[in-house]
Amino acid sequence: MRELRRKDDAVAITVLTSDGGEGYSKPMISTGYTKDLNADKLAAQSAEELAEQLNVSVRIRTRVASIDTQAQVVHLEGGEALPYSELVLALGAELIRPPIGGDAADEVLGVNDLDDYRRFQDLLAAKGAKKIAIIGAGLIGCEFTNDLLNGGFTVEAVDPMGWCLPTLLPEQSGRAVQAALEEKGATFHFGPLATEVNRAGDGYTVTLNNGDTIAADAVLCAVGVRPRTGLASDAGIEVNRGIVTDRQLRTNAPTSMPWAIVPKSRGTFWFMSRH
Predict the structure, then answer these.
(1) Rounded to an integer, what distance in angstroms lies between the CA atom of residue 160 and that of residue 194?
(2) What is the structure's pLDDT at 255?
(3) Pairwise CA distance, residues 124 & 126, whole Å
(4) What DSSP string describes the chain?
(5) FRET label pair with 86: which of 95, 148, 158, 162, CA 20 to 30 Å apart?
(6) Parallel, antiparallel, or unpaired for β 154-159 and 131-135?
(7) d(Cα 271, Cα 195) in Å, to the nearest integer?
(8) Do residues 63 and 20 make contact, with C-beta atoms less than 8 angstroms apart?
(9) Count of CB atoms within 10 A of residue 204's CB?
């Protein structure tokens, strides 16, 4: 969006986003306790400030139901239909949720955006949480382990692999990360899978498939993310591990008129940052 505005200061741009539309650095949401920043402080700019700075229209808390690529119309939840001349899909990633049973499986937390982080911090504060169980010891799991330790929490993490960051680091380096976090107070369970999360009084019990259990005040799932492709796939746009494009980032969906014969307004770009 910023780059497009640099190239063209006249084209009409509307951003549709299901969240609050704030400008923030996503990696910062796993450093909030370390830096003593809540969700509001992590937001560098509000949607209103971004809209004014870039001369765009931002529609927050707006969810897209479907895309009609033939008619070039975006259908919103609630029935509103928005025509477009060009559509940019910038949907980001969604959390991976491993299969977990138990009567509190739907209470397992996940943090993927600023709204999630606000709910996460608010819940821990409301519960007076002191111990957090983390499912996953990859990059995100270790980042949250470190951040929560810095925030004064006790952390136990479980991962079926053999060491920290197993897909990014060789064993010796992963073990060094593990040792550093253990020195700060973390406990790791490598090898088993978390199979159930059940309520236990005001907290939870995480059951592992080796018979061990972890008691915690809250459970955070941090096993990774994958591209959001459902909306594109439902619209007939080719997807693979992500949305398939050519070298100019064009999908197989129909395009609008060539730039040379578009009216002076040069149409409307709709950016869908989340759905």
Answers:
(1) 8
(2) 64
(3) 6
(4) -HHHHHH-SSSEEEEE-SS---B--GGGGGSHHHHT--HHHH-SB-HHHHHHHHT-EEE-S--EEEEETTTTEEEETTS-EEE-SEEEE---EEE-----BSTTGGG-B---SHHHHHHHHHHHHHHT--EEEEE--SHHHHHHHHHHHHTT-EEEEEESSSSSSTTTS-HHHHHHHHHHHHHTT-EEEESPPEEEEEEETTEEEEEETTS-EEEESEEEE-S-EEE--HHHHHTT--BSSSB---TT---SSPP-S-GGGS-TT--EEEEE---
(5) 95
(6) parallel
(7) 39
(8) no
(9) 23
CA-derived radius of gyration, the chain: 22
Which amino acid, one-letter code, is at 162?
A: G
CA distances 103 to 150, 158, 175, 195, 204, Å, are 30, 19, 34, 12, 10
AA letter at 24: Y
The answer to whether 235 and 73 are in contact (CB under 8 A) is: no
Higher-confidence residue: 8 or 201?
201
* Cβ atoms of 84 and 72 closer than 8 Å: yes
Convert the pLDDT of each residue in 114-151 to its tens digit.
999 999 999 999 999 999 999 999 999 999 999 999 99
Nearest to 98 by CA among 206, 222, 236: 222
Q: Say which amino acid occupies 115.
A: D
